[in-house]
Amino acid sequence: MPVNHDAVDRDTVTEVLAGVRAEGRSALTAPEGKRIADAYGIATPGEALATSADEAVAHAGSFDGPVVLKIVSPDILHKTDAGGVIVGVESAEQVRAAYDRIVANAREYDAGARITGVQVQQMLPPGQEVIVGAVTDPTFGKVVAFGLGGVLVEVLKDVTFRLAPVTEDEAASMLDSIGAAEILRGVRGAPAVDRAALAEQIRRVSQLVTDFPEIAEVDLNPVIATPEGALAADIRVLLAESVPAPRRTHTREEILSSMTRLMQPRSVAVIGASSEAGKIGNSVMRNLIDGGFAGDIHPVNPKADEIEGRKAYASVLDVPGEVDVAVFAIPAKFVPAALEEVGARNIPNAVLIPSGFAETGEHELQDRIVAIAEERGIRLLGPNIYGYYSPWQDLCATFCTPYDVKGPVALTSQSGGIGMAILGFARTTKTGVSAIVGLGNKSDIDEDDLLTYFGEDPHTKCVAMHLEDLKDGRAFVEAARATVPKKPIVVLKAGRTSAGAKAAGSHTGALAGDDAVYDDILRQAGVIRAPGLNEMLEYARALPVLPTPQGENVVIITGAGGSGVLLSDACVDNGLSLMDIPADLDEAFMRYIPPFGAAGNPIDITGGEPPSTYEATIRLGLEDPRVHALILGYWHTIVTPPMVFAELTARVVAEARAKGIHKPVVASLAGDTEVEAASAHLFAHGVVAYPYTTEQPVAALGAKYRWARAAGLLPAKG
Amino acid sequence: MPVNHDAVDRDTVTEVLAGVRAEGRSALTAPEGKRIADAYGIATPGEALATSADEAVAHAGSFDGPVVLKIVSPDILHKTDAGGVIVGVESAEQVRAAYDRIVANAREYDAGARITGVQVQQMLPPGQEVIVGAVTDPTFGKVVAFGLGGVLVEVLKDVTFRLAPVTEDEAASMLDSIGAAEILRGVRGAPAVDRAALAEQIRRVSQLVTDFPEIAEVDLNPVIATPEGALAADIRVLLAESVPAPRRTHTREEILSSMTRLMQPRSVAVIGASSEAGKIGNSVMRNLIDGGFAGDIHPVNPKADEIEGRKAYASVLDVPGEVDVAVFAIPAKFVPAALEEVGARNIPNAVLIPSGFAETGEHELQDRIVAIAEERGIRLLGPNIYGYYSPWQDLCATFCTPYDVKGPVALTSQSGGIGMAILGFARTTKTGVSAIVGLGNKSDIDEDDLLTYFGEDPHTKCVAMHLEDLKDGRAFVEAARATVPKKPIVVLKAGRTSAGAKAAGSHTGALAGDDAVYDDILRQAGVIRAPGLNEMLEYARALPVLPTPQGENVVIITGAGGSGVLLSDACVDNGLSLMDIPADLDEAFMRYIPPFGAAGNPIDITGGEPPSTYEATIRLGLEDPRVHALILGYWHTIVTPPMVFAELTARVVAEARAKGIHKPVVASLAGDTEVEAASAHLFAHGVVAYPYTTEQPVAALGAKYRWARAAGLLPAKG
C-alpha cells in the first residue's frame, strides 16, 4: 500500500484529545484511537459504512484483501443471529451479493428494523505480529519502541528504542535492532514483511507523540506485518497527567564560552582559602600553586591578609581584575551569600566543593543556590565534588592530590569515589589526561556541557564519563552526536540493573526498563558503553593510543596456538571480523612460518620462533593494505624474550608509521612476569598491550571499532 | 494423562531399526517413527481403526479431547470429497453419529467401495509448541535438547541440553533452563502447561537414544504442550552411519594410582638429560635440582657419566630402583624407542615435553607412541608440553622457570602459552599453587584424569583448567561431579565462539552449536566457567581465599555512594542477592552512620567517615548471623587512608574468624595508587580486594556462590 506522507491532520487529533480531557479521562476509546490513527496516517484495517451495494463495492475496492460485511442497525443487537455478518468476501461480485444477502437476511430477521447500512471492514491478514509503541521516558522524553508481538517476546524483552521523532532511516534501523530481526526478513522460506510499511508505522507514531507531548503512551499492539503492508489491529493511547516544563537551556555558544573560561581560566579565586594545613581551603590553594597554574590565584578569607604567599581578600568583591572561576571551600550554609557576591562580581563559574546539599537531604539549600546562579548567570559545578583538574593549564582546583600528566583523555565522574579511582588508575598506568572533573550533585553543569567543550578542545582525543543519571538525556545525545564524529566517548552508566519495577500503563511501557532505553539510545548516539569501571578506565587509556582502523579486516598473529583460539573468541565477543585471508597473502605469511605452522587466521607462527619471525609477519600484516588491524599473541620463550618482542614490535610499528601506515595494533602477552614490563613498553609506544589476558586487548580494539563505525569512518557492517 | 513408566518395548524398536537398515535407509518414515514412539511411551496423538460405531466410540473415549474421523478405503482417494472426514467430534453420541454418517457418505459416493473402517484420531489441541530432541555430540555423546517451538525460537536459539539419559528431575530442570521458561508457567493469565508430561517426553527420548546408540538424532517437533499433557505432533528419527567404538577407560583406582605417582613421585628419570646450558634436557635437570625435589633424580644420556652432579645412565633400563616418572627431553623421533624402554622398566608415567607430534601434522608418530603406551601400560602426559609443577613436592619437571609458592590452586592448560601466563600471573600475584600441568596434545592423560586426582589431593582447594576440547566429555563430567561437592572447578573453555556452521540433519542438531552444548553441560556438572583467561586466573586466585557462604544474603557497605551503585550492578550481573535488610539491623547500622547516610542495601556510610565507622559497620555485618557475605566499597580519604582501611578490615575479619565467624568478604578500593598496596594487604589477609574496579571483587564472590550452589551447600535459588 503506498504511504501518504502528508496525511497528517493535527486538528483532528487536537479535537479528539480535547474531548478526552473534557471528560476527565486519560485513556482514549477505540474509536478515538482510530480517529487519531487515521489523522496521522497510521495504517489500520480500513472500514466504511455502505448504504448501497455499489458503495460497498467501492469501499471494498479501496482496501487490500478480503473484507467482512456487517449489518448496522440500531434494532439488531445480535448481528450473527440475524445473518448480518459475512466474512472473507473477495470479488466485487461477491461484495454485491453479500450486501444484498445481508440486507435481505436482516429484513427477514426483523422486518421493522431500521437499517443504517452495512459496515465494510478490511479483514486482518495472517502475518507477523509486531508491537509499535511510544512512551515518555523520564530522561529522554518521547521514545518510540519496536518489537515482535506476542507473549514470547514480552517474556524475552526483545525490543528496541529510539528518540522520537525518528527519520525513515532510523525507523528502518529498528527492524534490524531486535534479536529476532531475522524473522522479519523471512526464515524457513517464509516471505519477508513489507519493511517500508512497518518503518512508516513507527515513524508516524514517533511523529504523533512529538507533535502532541501530552500523549504519554501509544501502543499499536499488535501490528500485523505482511509482505504487502503493516496494519495496526489495535491502537491504545494514554494521556499524561501533566507535561513537564522544558528545562532551562543554553546555546552552544554560551556553553562553550563559560566552559572555556572554566577549563582554561586566567584567574581563579578561592573562597575559603586557608593557611591551615589539612583544611580543604588550604589543600586547594596548595594544589593550585604547586600544580604550577600560571594564572592569578586569589585567596578570599576575611580573617587573613596573606595565604600561601598570596594577598588575601576579605570578599570576592575586592579581588582585582577579571576572574573566571570561584572555587568554594566554605561550609554549605555560607555558600548562598558568597555566591551572591560571585554573581555581583560577574564571575561566570562557581566550583562548589562543599557537601551538605541535596546529597544530605538539604534540597532547599541546593534549590536556593541554583536560583541565585540562574538569576546571576553563574554556572555551577557541583556541589559535593572533589573539584577538577585541567592539566594542560597546570590547574589542580581540588583538595585531592595533584595530577600533572598531560595527555589526551578527559574524564568526568558523578561520584567522588570514582574520581579517586580515576586518579589512582591514571597515575599507575601513566595515562595522560586533559581533564578530570567531578560533577557531584550536578545542580547545574552536566555531562552535556562538558561534552560540548571537550568536543572542541584540541587536547582532548577521548572523553570518558561515569554517570548515574542524565538530567537531560536529549541534550546529552545532541552533544554526543556532535562529538562522536571527532572523538570517542566512553560512558560508564551506573545503576543499569537497578531499574526494578516501573509502573506502566501500556505494553511498551512495561518493556521500557530504564536501562533498555538508555542502552539503545546511548548506542544510537555513538557512545561506547563500558560494562564496568575498569573497562571505562582501560578504554579511556587505550583508545587515544590506537589509530583509527580503515576497514574491518582484523588479523591475529600468534606464537601460541592457545592464545589464538582465545583471541578469536574475543574477536567474536567484541564484534570484530577475522579477515578471510586471500591466497597470495596466505602464501606470503607461510614463507616466514614453519611448515607445521598454521596460516589462515589466526596466523599461528608457532612457539619456538625467533624475533625475526615475529618481525617479518608483523611487518607483512602492517604493510599489506588489505589488512586493517593486527592482534598479536605473544608467547614467552627463551628464543624471543618479552622485551625483545616488545622492542621489535614497537620498532616495526614505528617504521610503518614513518611510512604513513597507521593501523591499530594490540597485543596479548602470555608469559612470566617480564611480560608486564614488555606490555608497558608496548603501550608507551603505541601498541595497546596487556599481560595475562586475551580478552582485554581485543576489547580495546573492539571499542575503537565501535567508535569508528559510529563516527561514520567505516562502512556499516553487513 | 497418566504416564506409564514401564511402557518400553525394546524389541519393537530393534525390529523397526533393523528394517530401516535392511532397506539401506538412515531416516525413518512417519509410521516407523510412530511405532518407536509408541514402543517408548512417547505420547503422540492417539489413533485407531474402528470397524463399528461402538469401536469408534471406545477408541474416542480412550483419547483426550475431540477426535477426527476419517474413512479408510482403498477405493476412496479423496476422503474429503467423499464426505469421509469429520473433525472436532466430541461426545460419544457425536462419534456414533459421525461414524454412521461417514460410512453412509462413502457408500453414497461410491457404492462399490471396499470400506476397511474408520480411522479415529485424537485431534491436536491448541497449546504451546515446544521441541524435544536428541543428538549425538562429538564430545558428550547422546544429549537431549529442549526448547520452545516455532521459527522465533530457532532464530533466538533458546534451547537447553543435558547428557542422556536424564532423570525425571533433570528433565524437569530443563523446562526452567530456557530464556522463555516463564511461558511454560503461564503468562498473561494463560494456564501453565503440564510440566510432568513434558518432562516425561524428554526423559523417554533420552532413554531411547541411550538404549539405541545407533539412533543419531531424534526430533519431536513440535510437541504440543497443554495444561492436560504433551503430545508429539511429529517424530523424526535418523540413524548414525556408524557407532564409534567406546574409548579406552581406566577405573578410578587406576587413575588415582598412576596420577598419585605422577604428582607425588619419589624417583624421576630425565631421558635426554644434558649438561649443556640452554638445552631443554639441562633446564629440566636444573629445575628439578634447584626446585629442591627431595626424591631421586636420574639423568639418562648415553654420552655422559654425570650430569649436574648426578650419575647418568645410558638407558632408562639401567636406572636403579622404582621410578615413578620418566621426563622426556629428546627429539620426537627418538621417543618411541625410549618409550619402549620406559615400558620395559615398568615406569608408569611418561612426561613428553617434545613437540613434533600431532600438532605438527605427525599424527602417525603420535599414534605410534599411544599404541606403545597402551600396550606397555604407561600413562602419557603430553606430548608438546612445558612439563609440570608439583610445588608441595618441590617438583619442577619443566624447562620453564621454577615456581615454588606452595598453595591451594591446581592449574592445567592445554596450551603452552596459557601455561606461561599462569606462571607469570601466579608469580606477580603471589598465588599459592598445588600444581601447574601442561596437557598439550593430550595423547592420553586428559583433564578427567587430573581432576580425579585433584579432587582427592588434600593440598588442592580449587582446580582451574584451560581447555580447547575434551576428549571424553562424559568422563570429564563424571570427574567434575565427583569433585565439585569438595572443591570448585574453574574452566576456561577456548573456542567457544568458533562453533560455526555444523551440518545437521535435524532441528535439534542445528540448534546444538558446539558451545551451547558445552555451556549447558559444564554448568550442569557444577563447573564455574570463566569467560576469559584473566577471569580464570583471578577466580583461581580468589576462590580459595573466600570462605564458603552459608546463605544468599549479600550486604554492600560503602564509603562512596557511586561505588555502591556500581557494586549493586555487579551483584545483579553475577547472580547475587542483595539482602533485604530487616528493620532492626537497619537501625543498628544507622547508629554508626551520619544521618544523611543511607541504610538499606548498599549501606552508604558516606565519604568523610573515620576508620571507626568502617570498623563498626563491617563488624556488625560480620557478626549478624542473617548476613552471609560482605562487599566493601572503600573511598580513599585523608580521614581513612587506604592502608588504615586495609589493616582495620583485616583485623576485624580476623577477629570474627577467631570467634568462628567465616564469611566471604570482598572489597573494591577506589582511590589513589596507595589502594594497590592496600588491596594486596587485604588479599593476603583473606579479603578478596581489587583497586580501580567494582566488577572484579563481585565477580569473584559470584563465582564462589555459583560453586557453593552447585556443590549443594546452599539452598537452590528461587
TrEMBL record, chains A, B:
UniProt xrefs under InterPro entries: ATP-grasp (IPR011761), ATP_grasp_subdomain_1 (IPR013815), CoA-bd (IPR003781), Ligase_CoA_dom (IPR043938), NAD(P)-bd_dom_sf (IPR036291), Succ_CoA_lig_flav_dom (IPR032875), Succinyl-CoA_synth-like (IPR016102)
Q: Which PROSITE patterns did the record assign?
A: ATP_GRASP (PS50975)
Name the coiled-coil region(s). Answer: none
Q: Which domain of life is it from?
A: Bacteria
Isomerase listed as a keyword: no
Nucleotide-binding as a keyword of this entry, yes or no, is yes
Any single GO molecular-function term of the entry would be: ATP binding
Under Pfam families, the record lists: ATP-grasp_5, CoA_binding_2, Ligase_CoA_2, Succ_CoA_lig
Q: What UniProt keywords apply to this chain's record, in alphabetical order?
A: ATP-binding, Ligase, Nucleotide-binding
ATP-grasp domain ranges (all copies) = 34-244
Family membership, please give it: In the N-terminal section; belongs to the acetate CoA ligase alpha subunit family.
Protein name, as recorded: Acetate--CoA ligase family protein
Query: What species does this protein belong to?
Result: Streptomyces tagetis
